Amino acid sequence: MVAKNLTEYLGFKPSAYKHWDPNPVVGLSSLCFAVPSCAFAAVVLAMTNSLQKPYPADLLFQLLFYALLCFQYAVAVIFCCLADYVYIRRGHRSFFGKVDIIWASFTFFASNVNFALRAGLIEPAVCSSIAILAFMYSGSSKSFQQWIFRHSFWHFIGGSIGTYGALRFAPMEGLLWPVMLDWLVHMLTATAAMVLALLCAATSMAEHGVGVWRCPCSVEGSGHMKPGRV
Fold first, then answer.
1. Are the C-beta atoms of 225 and 87 separated by less than 8 Å?
2. Are the C-beta atoms of residues 38 and 187 closer than 8 Å to each other?
3. What is the tens place of the pLDDT at every residue in 56-81?
4. Which of 84, 90, 202, 205 would bridge with 210, disulfide CB 3.0–4.6 Å?
5. CA atoms of 180 and 188, how far apart (whole Å)
6. 207 Cβ neighbours under 8 A, 6+ residues apart
C-alpha cells in the first residue's frame, strides 16, 4: 500500500503526481533543508564551546533535542533529493518517496514539539499552517513547469521555517546570540563549499562520460518505482 502524506489523510486530493519528473532545480532546492540543519548545529556548537559543564537538566535536554533536529534535517536533504529528483517518475512514487514522507513527517512533528517548548503554541501553529499551505500549493500543481516552481518554493518555505524555529528563542540566546550567528556563518560556508566541490566533481565526471546525472529510475525494471500519488 502506498504511503500517504499528512495532507492526504486530511482529505486533500493532490494532482502533482500526474506532472512531476526529474528536474535539477527541484533537486538542488532540497539543499534548503541544509540551512536549518546548520542553524541547529550552530546553536549546539555555541553552547558546547561557550558554557561550562555540567549543564542544567533543561539545557541538556534542549542541547540533545537540537542535535537530533540537526541530524534529522541533514538526512532530510538526502531523502528529499532521492525522492524528488533521483528516483522520481511521472505518475509514480518511489520507495524513497515513501521514505521521504515518513522522515519529513517525523521531522515536522519533532520541530513543532521543540519550538513549542520554547515559544508556546501560537508561533509553531502559524509556522505549521504556512508549511502545510506551501506543501498543498505544490501538491495542487497542474503542469510540470508549475510543479518545478511550486515544489522548489515548498522546499524554500520548509527550510526557512525550520531555520526560524531553530533560532527563535534559542537556548541561552541572550548570552550566546553573537556566538550562534558566528557558528552559523561558518556552518553555512562549509556546507556551501562542500556542495560546490561535489557539483564540480559530478560535472567533471559527466564530461568524461560518467552518467552521474542519470536517474537510476530510468532503467527499466528498477525495483524502486511503484504507482502512487503525491
1. yes
2. yes
3. 999 999 999 999 999 999 999 999 99
4. 205
5. 12
6. none
